[in-house]
Structures are given as C-alpha cells and as structure tokens.
Design goal:
The chain is an alpha/beta fold and about 350 residues long. The protein is built from twelve helices and eight strands. The structure holds thiamine diphosphate and magnesium ion.
Length: about 350
C-alpha cells in the first residue's frame, strides 16, 4: 500500500475529476459548453494511477475523453473549465474545447478527436527521446475501439521494431460508442495483441489506482531500460454514456450496476479507512476542498471573456506560415470564408 499522503492525494484527484465532470454535465445542460462532451466518470483510477507513476517531463498524448488525464497531469482546473466554456483564458485559449485540452509546459500534448490518429505522435516523441538519450517516456492513451484502427498497428509495430520508450495505455471500457466489444473486436483481452508485436502486454485492474500505478511504473522502467514499448490494458468502465448525446439503449442496467459496485472512488475511500490511512473527517475536508475548487473553476470560466473576434484567425497554423496570416488573407479575398 502507499503512504498516507499519496493515498489522500489520489483520492482527492479522483474526486476532483468526478466533480469536474459533473460540473461539465451541468454546464452542457445550460448550453455554457458546446460541441461534444465525453465524460470519464468511472475511469478515474486509470488516469490517476497511471499518470502518478510518470515523471513530470514524460510526454502524454491522449484521446478526446481527456478531462481526467489533464487533471491527473495537474493542469489548472480554472483553465480547463474555461477551455470547455470556450473562453480566452482556457488552456487552449478557448479554441480546443473538451476534446483538445493541452499544456505544452506540462508535456501534455493534448486530447485528439480522431480515433487512433494520435498514437503515431507518441511514437515520434519516443523516437526523439531515444535519439537524444533523454530517458523520457511517451505515454499514449486510447480506447478499446481505437485498437481496431490502423494507427494502432502501425504505431505498435514501429515502436517495437525500434524498441522505443512508449507506453500504450489502452482504456478498455468495453464499448466504442454504442458498440459492445464482442461485436467489433476479434479478441476481448486486448493486451494479448502485444504478442503480435513481440512486446510486453499486461492487463490491469483499471478500477484500482494502486494497480494502475504499479503496472505503469513497471512499464516505464522497462522503457527507460531500453527494452521497448509496453501495451497496458486497463479493464475499466464508463458509468455515463459515450457522450452527452447518448441515450444508452445498448447496455442493460444490471451491467452498469455491476460496475458501479466497483466504483474506484468509493472503494479507494473504504480501503483508506480500513487500512487506517485516513479518517472520515480528513476525507470530508478533502471533499469540501474539491467543492470549493470547482465552484471557483465554474465562476472563473463563466466570468472570463470570450476570445476577441479579431483573434479568430490566430493559432490556426504553425510556422512557417505566420499565425493567422493565411486565414486573414483568405478572409480579405473572400469575406466570411475561413478554412
Ligand atoms: C477516425 C475516426 N473514426 C470514427 C470516429 C467516431 N468515433 C468517435 S469516438 C468513437 C469510439 C471510440 O471508442 P474507444 O476507442 O473504445 O474509446 P471510448 O470512447 O470508449 O473511450 C468513434 C468511432 C472518430 N472520432 N474518428
Ligand atoms: Mg471504449
């Protein structure tokens, strides 16, 4: 078991993720948040355990279900909520929204909306780490459905061939949108796909932050020793629908209830109490501190300014095209038209 401080910290982080997302659902209902919104509720232990095991300068590149990963990487919750509200003070200046949370200073390279398309980026980052001998690791996080995408094969194969320091963290929540895993995957124990690339693969209890921490730590050590990539399969479950637009007709209530019994937060709390690592009073104090942080995040997001209209074209292109210049040129030629 971990020490008291770590146990409490993990508890707080998991509660922070859950409350953050509950506030997101509220914000969505009030139309303060637009676009797509994919909640991570139920999967908190994966992010908190795995990301705690990395060093601060290890890279993370993740999918669109990214709020939990960003919070576990300690991005500022005010900036995250503001990003969801589309505000200038957001971590991606309000241009990214829910699916594109990022903070380069934290080596958190973003959520990506295209299923499986971000895995090759982690391979590229790892190639750099190997080339420079930096001892850093790149971790990419994705879902079970993404492992049926071509980018998965190309990335695992290339990382294996070059023995690159990549942790492929697969969050197997048993569904890809409304499609159950047995309908879209030839096998359901997805870590076994590692065999096809001659790399190490492991299944982990994704409802247990400690199991996630230990497995990720072992994986990172392997990577740093130059033994090549690792495929970790976190067995987990999302308690909410795929996105806010999901009526959830495809799974029955008994199944959801079965997994709710394995709630990572309730179980971790019980474990801390059983092992004498925390008192009810200490836990209540943490819950209250999270509530305060969330109220502040919502207030900050709500009161922050929208991006100014004349910055519409900023941050669209990286160099060598000067930020926004191409867009401005297009607008001048064809007003109202911006690609
Ligand atoms: C290339 C691509 N194809 C299809 C989609 C539409 N889409 C969005 S999420 C999703 C399911 C992905 O499921 P999974 O990888 O298991 O992640 P989860 O949502 O369960 O976390 C699909 C098909 C997309 N975003 N990108
Ligand atoms: Mg899934």
């Amino acid at each position: 078991m971990v020490d008291k401080q770590t146990a409490l910290d993990w508890y707080r982080q998991m509660v922070l993720i859950r409350r953050f997302e509950e506030k997101c659902a509220e914000g969505y209902a009030y139309a303060k948040i637009g676009g797509f919104l994919h909640l991570y509720i139920g999967q908190e232990a994966v992010a908190v355990g795995a990301i705690s095991a990395l060093n601060e300068d290890d890279d993370i590149v993740t999918h669109y279900r990214d709020h939990g990963h960003a919070i576990a990487r300690r991005l500022d919750t005010n900036a995250l909520m503001a990003e969801l509200y589309g505000k200038e003070t957001g971590c991606s200046k309000g241009r990214g929204g829910s699916m594109h949370l990022a903070d380069a200073s934290k080596h958190f390279w973003g959520g990506y909306a295209l299923v499986g398309a971000h895995l090759p980026m982690a391979v590229g980052m790892a190639m750099r780490h190997q080339y420079t001998g930096s001892q850093q690791v790149a971790m990419t996080i994705f879902g079970d459905g993404s492992s049926n995408n071509g980018g998965f094969h190309e990335s695992l194969n290339m990382a294996a061939v070059f023995k690159l320091p990549v942790i492929f963290l697969l969050e197997n929540n048993l569904y890809s949108m409304g499609v159950a895993i047995h309908r879209d995957s030839a096998i359901e124990d997805l870590h076994k796909r590692a065999i096809g690339y001659g790399i190490h693969g492991e299944a982990v209890d994704g409802m247990d932050p400690l199991a996630m921490y230990e497995a990720t730590q072992r994986a990172a050590e392997r990577c740093r020793r130059g033994e090549g990539p690792v495929l970790l399969e976190a067995k987990t479950y999302r308690f909410r629908g795929h996105s806010m637009a999901d009526p959830e007709y495809y799974r029955d209530k008994e199944e959801v209830e079965f997994w709710r019994q394995r709630d990572p937060i309730a179980n971790w709390k019980q474990r801390m109490l059983d092992e004498g690592l925390a008192t009810e009073a200490e836990i209540t104090a943490l819950d209250e501190s999270v509530e305060r942080e969330m109220e502040e995040a919502v207030r900050f997001a709500d009161e922050s300014p929208d991006p100014a209209l004349d910055t519409l074209c900023d941050f669209l292109y990286a160099t060598p095209v000067e930020n926004g210049d191409l867009c401005r040129q297009q607008q001048a030629e064809k007003p109202g038209y911006a690609r």
